[in-house]
Specification:
alpha/beta, 2 domains, eight-stranded parallel β-sheet, two-stranded antiparallel ribbon
Length: 358
């Protein structure tokens, strides 16, 4: 496995904030920025005409690569994704059909499932808004992947007796996604929330339980379905050969989680080397300058999410290099980006696409 496949040659990261840029905010026309306020009952959300300018770039990207965002209900994407300033509720309900017409956006991460399981009919409503070539990345509910039962503010209240329960994983997650999304299901993500010391101190027991759940998930999937099963962790202590062996034994991969709770991207890439050959699943969630719990600060700085204000050149460069290497070897890649990464997920994706196609 060549080291440069995963971007080792990129210089080490700087922890200093990059100079903020807002070039897009100046380039969007005044009429596009104003838009027209659309109410909750808007029957149709239309794509921005400007998205067609990215079709030629999209055609130069590897066919195995799918970019997407983590949530699509942002009015600030007027002129970037939408053709006006729609109400967030209208975008949440009807925006996916317009979103998927953007040439660079061929997947989306459905994050809301982490907080509450969705039904097969809810998944089917999403599937009905996209064409047959689109694929979904879906997160397993926290009632399966969080070792703690948490209160409304996220504080742990008590141990979760259903942590990594195979039956709940199938009933609350795998079965409804398969039934509702069908062939449009691309990736099942099992994000393990930060673990208490009681679990971190017993890694063998933890990985045994994770393995039993993954075995049940793989058994529940159709034999030849190209669905990727990915595990994301929030504890750096878990990165190592033992986790890689567990994932490999059950046909799963490691999901790169890019945020300050985990090490920088180049320190997570050894997990992918240990699993090679295999796909890339990456969720670029939060710029490291905001710290491990800086989501509120990132939202405050980046709102209305229509410009890159916290540019992260290092992460973008290593990620682009990694994507090129993995897709160049014929493996699929799913990369989803949050507004909290640089300020505007669609613009971050455009810059990644330009770097890959260059």
């Amino acid at each position: 496995m060549q080291d440069d496949l995963f971007g080792n040659a990129v210089p080490p990261p700087s922890l200093q904030p990059q100079t903020a840029t807002a070039s897009h905010a100046n380039s969007v026309s005044a009429s596009a920025r104003k838009g027209s306020k659309r109410g909750e009952d808007a029957a149709e959300v239309r794509p921005a005409p400007a998205v067609e300018a990215w079709r030629e770039l999209a055609q130069r990207l590897p066919a195995q690569l799918r970019f997407g965002v983590s949530t699509w209900s942002y009015p600030g994407w007027d002129g970037l994704v939408w053709d006006g300033a729609y109400d967030p509720s209208a975008l949440s309900k009807n925006g996916l059909e317009a979103y998927h017409r953007h040439p660079l956006l061929r997947t989306v991460c459905v994050d809301r499932t982490f907080w509450r399981p969705l039904t097969a009919s809810q998944y089917a409503a999403y599937a009905a808004q996209v064409d047959d070539g689109f694929r979904f990345v879906v997160k397993c509910p926290a009632n399966v992947t969080d070792a703690q039962v948490r209160g409304a503010e996220g504080k742990a209240r008590e141990p979760n007796p259903d942590f990594l329960d195979p039956r709940l994983a199938i009933e609350h997650f795998v079965q409804p996604t398969l039934e509702g999304l069908g062939a449009k299901l691309g990736v099942l993500v099992f994000q393990l929330s930060p673990l208490p010391l009681g679990w971190l101190g017993r890694p063998t027991l933890l990985l045994d339980r994770l393995g039993r759940m993954l075995a049940a998930v793989r058994q529940a999937l159709p034999a030849h379905a190209p669905v990727i099963v990915a595990v994301e962790v929030r504890d750096p202590e878990l990165l190592g050969q033992a986790l890689a062996d567990t994932l490999k034994a059950h046909g799963a991969t490691f999901c790169l989680g890019l945020h300050a709770k985990m090490p920088p991207i180049e320190e997570q890439l050894p997990m992918l080397r240990a699993l090679w050959p295999g796909p890339l699943v990456c969720r670029w969630n939060l710029n490291r300058i905001f710290g491990a719990y800086g989501y509120a600060d990132a939202q405050k700085k980046h709102d209305p999410f229509n410009a890159i204000l916290s540019e992260d050149l290092h992460t973008r460069a290593v990620l682009a290099r990694t994507i090129r290497g993995i897709t160049g070897a014929g493996q699929p890649a799913y990369v989803t980006v949050s507004n909290d990464a640089e300020g505007c997920a669609p613009l971050s994706i455009q810059k990644l696409a330009e770097a890959i196609a260059a």
